[in-house]
Design brief:
The radius of gyration is 24 Å and the shape is globular. Strand 4, helix 9 and strand 5 form a beta-alpha-beta unit. The termini are far apart. The protein has an 8-stranded parallel beta barrel with strand order 1-2-3-4-5-6-9-10, surrounded by 7 helices. Strands 7-8 form a two-stranded antiparallel ribbon. The mean pLDDT is about 90. The protein is about 50% helix and about 15% strand.
């Protein structure tokens, strides 16, 4: 009887609590349901991040940089001298290099590899790993780097020509021991940004199958800002996946700081690992201003307002706290430009001093 009495008291207490907190209208019920769902999702992401950081903690930490010879020229710096300085003076282990189609096959059927050969040679000279971007969509505006002759072709024809170019690229550089992976089609599903003819998954699948038949090296497929359409659960299933982290950008109302906490990115990496078995890294950590005009046209004040040595230091700490163990900095052309053109070595020196602190 005593136990039954206590049970009845507990039931009456629970009913009384529910009467007080239950939604008083359909709208309130919907809002409460949405809030509970949101909190559950946040909890899922958070604990996935805790798990990911723990299981990744024994993996060696690798820092790298992206280097675009197109963008270096846009800033007015020598692409090869800049890359040599980056490779020889900064405490990095890897370089993310580009193989722009419109540069290396400016004339149909005629390949000119000189510029990329020189960059691979620099990587080999300083024993840096190379993550080689391949395909139509590669880093820097206009994102899709199609030669003018290919723009005049029907879709089926230029896709075939692109596959020929992909094959030629992989066959040329696959023998280099420093080329450790290929990044296929940079942020392929980011349809809202760039001047690209299509974002057709079938094309990506076909390109992936081709490259996979040509090399045993890992293939990376990247995504931007973790939009769900690019969640890597579909085909093709890459060997590694990566995303970008941009924190401070300029929009029509001024500078905006993305509010994502560290655990959000750690959680996305964790959920990716759980659902696909594929590891995730940061292929673009913003270390470059994002201002109201192109970087090359930003004055000194705007550059400093968007990115300086202090913000850089915090950005490195933020990326490290995600638990991802490969981190490629985005903006090496800019901080080399700051050093040589603006006589400001503060960002360059910060990278030299800060990276070795992280283990």
């Amino acid at each position: 009887m005593g136990k039954l009495m206590y049970f009845e008291k507990f039931r009456a207490w629970a009913v009384a609590i529910w009467q007080k907190i239950r939604p008083k209208s359909r709208l309130a019920y919907v809002m409460n349901s949405l809030l509970i769902t949101f909190l559950l999702l946040c909890s899922l992401v958070y604990f996935a991040g805790v798990w990911y950081r723990r299981q990744a903690s024994t993996t060696p930490l690798t820092w790298g940089v992206s280097w675009s010879y197109k963008f270096a020229r846009e800033l007015g710096v020598d692409p090869q001298a800049g890359l040599e300085a980056v490779a020889s003076e900064l405490p990095i282990s890897r370089l993310r290099l580009m193989s722009y189609w419109d540069v290396h096959e400016a004339t149909r059927g005629q390949y000119n590899w000189q510029e990329l050969d020189e960059q691979i040679a620099i990587a080999e000279k300083y024993d840096k790993q190379v993550s080689l971007a391949i395909g139509l969509r590669q880093p820097r505006w206009p994102e899709c780097h199609m030669p003018d002759w290919a723009k005049q072709l029907p879709a089926d024809d230029w896709r075939k020509e692109l596959q020929n170019y992909l094959q030629a690229t992989v066959e040329r550089y696959d023998s280099s021991p420093n080329v450790v992976e290929y990044q296929l089609e940079n942020e392929f599903f980011t349809g809202f940004f760039g001047e690209c003819p299509d974002h057709d998954r079938e094309r990506l699948e076909n390109e992936y199958s081709l490259v996979k038949s040509l090399t045993s090296k890992p293939i990376v497929i990247t995504r931007s800002n973790n939009f769900l359409p690019s969640w890597p659960i579909g085909q093709p299933r890459a060997d590694r996946t990566a995303f970008s982290i941009y924190k401070r950008v300029h929009n029509p109302v001024g500078y905006y700081e993305y509010p994502y906490p560290v655990w959000f990115y750690a959680g996305i990496a964790g959920l990716t690992k759980i659902t696909t078995g594929v590891d995730t890294f940061i292929h673009e950590l913003q270390v470059e201003p994002w201002g109201p005009v192109s970087t090359a046209d930003l004055n000194d004040q705007e550059q400093q307002q968007s990115m300086d040595a202090n913000r850089l230091s915090k950005r490195l700490s933020y990326a490290y706290a995600t638990g991802m163990r490969t981190i490629d900095l985005w903006g090496a052309e800019w901080f080399y430009w700051r050093k040589t053109y603006w006589n400001d070595s503060s960002v360059w020196t910060t990278i030299q001093q800060e990276l070795p602190k992280y283990k």
